[in-house]
């Protein structure tokens, strides 16, 4: 009798447990890897990139890699959610949004209404996360999503899904997480520096055939919830010297048109000091860094080399500022520095949330460079 009671008690308790009745097998779901948003003739165009996971385990186990299959879905609608539901119609299995690694905006989609709709969808849907890499592009999103890394490496290790890896080796265009994008998009005094993702069809071949690869080719600047300016990679070199997270930027030092050396920087410490006087603000910029010298083309005195390198860095910063100043785009985040250090002055001097920029807004740039490395002995003998 006692055993029967125990048995029925266990059965009753078990029936109250929810269990995993609603769970689905992973092979019965399609995991979206990256999404893209375009805006064409008043309609949203939504892209979803799907990849196979066959190569991931093989890459980590050093096994033979097979060519990776990439599928790209496309939906259209008058709202972003309508475009997503338009995509659902042709999906053969349920789409999972919990593993998205990247969001790509077309240049036409960098509008306040479009971005606000995306952020609203992300806020409301529990599967989306905020640790997602965010990009802009000037190319067809479908072309970006179909670009494959060399050697059959998984897309998960490309600049689309892992841009920070190459940034640690060569710091030029800083990658941007979605949560940082949202913070800079909404906060006063901030300028969003959104990386531009493109395909490079020139530099790599595979089996003697051109192999398009991904590259962060520039930056789009969004200010006061508007797209203000997009600059190519060659014109935004000054940004890296004012980014405290810049890991390893490199610079070639020239004198009289001749290359002298290539320097690789470490431990960059920038500071922006606003100076307010008579309803006018100017900024004193300081940069200190250490530089390794992996290559020395021509031996020159250390003092000269240091001065030429410091001058080159200051010129890059000023050149980038001047390009932004022409369109009143705060590419160097000067407004943010004033807002944080003197908010009262910021409210007084800004117009519609933007700080007017003049040719003399930057009053001074001081760069302090310390050289180290094996090649120093050669120039010290000079």
UniProtKB/TrEMBL annotation:
Cell compartments where the protein resides: Membrane
Keywords in alphabetical order: Germination, Lipoprotein, Membrane, Palmitate, Signal
Coiled coil, from the record: none
Signal peptide: 1-23
PANTHER family (alphabetical): SPORE GERMINATION PROTEIN B3 (PTHR35789)
Name of the featured protein: Probable spore germination protein
Domain Spore germination protein N-terminal intervals: 23-198
Annotated GO CC locations: membrane
Topology of the protein relative to the lipid bilayer: Lipid-anchor
């Amino acid at each position: 009798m006692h055993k029967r009671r125990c048995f029925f008690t266990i059965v009753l308790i078990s029936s109250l447990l929810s269990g995993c009745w609603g769970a689905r097998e992973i092979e019965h779901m399609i995991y979206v890897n990256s999404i893209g948003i375009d805006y064409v003739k008043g309609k949203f165009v939504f892209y979803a990139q799907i990849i196979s996971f066959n190569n991931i385990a093989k890459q980590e186990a050093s096994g033979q890699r097979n060519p990776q299959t990439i599928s790209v879905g496309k939906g259209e609608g008058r709202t972003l959610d309508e475009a997503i539901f338009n995509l659902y119609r042709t999906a053969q299995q349920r789409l999972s949004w919990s593993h998205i690694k990247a969001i790509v905006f077309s240049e036409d989609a960098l509008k306040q209404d479009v971005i606000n709709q995306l952020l609203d969808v992300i806020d409301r849907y529990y599967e989306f996360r905020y640790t997602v890499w965010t990009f802009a592009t000037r190319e067809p999103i479908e072309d970006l999503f179909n670009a494959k890394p060399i050697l059959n490496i998984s897309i998960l290790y490309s600049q689309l899904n892992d841009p920070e890896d190459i940034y640690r080796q060569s710091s030029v265009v800083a990658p941007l997480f979605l949560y940082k994008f949202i913070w800079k998009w909404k906060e006063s005094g901030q300028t969003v520096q959104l990386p531009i993702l493109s395909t490079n069809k020139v530099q790599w071949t595979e089996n003697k055939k051109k192999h398009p690869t991904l590259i962060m080719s520039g930056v789009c600047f969004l200010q006061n919830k508007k797209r203000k300016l997009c600059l190519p990679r060659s014109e935004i070199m000054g940004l890296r010297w004012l980014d405290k997270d810049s890991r390893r930027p490199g610079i070639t030092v020239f004198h009289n048109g001749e290359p002298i050396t290539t320097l690789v920087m470490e431990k960059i410490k920038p500071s922006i000091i606003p100076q307010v006087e008579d309803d006018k603000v100017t900024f004193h910029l300081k940069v200190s860094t250490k530089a390794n010298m992996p290559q020395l083309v021509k031996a020159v005195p250390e003092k000269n080399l240091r001065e030429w390198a410091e001058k080159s860095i200051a010129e890059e910063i000023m050149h980038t500022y001047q390009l932004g100043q022409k369109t009143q785009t705060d590419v160097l985040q000067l407004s943010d520095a004033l807002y944080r250090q003197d908010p009262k002055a910021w409210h007084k001097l800004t117009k519609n949330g933007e700080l007017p920029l003049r040719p003399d807004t930057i009053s001074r740039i001081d760069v302090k460079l310390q050289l180290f490395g094996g090649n120093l002995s050669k120039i010290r003998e000079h």
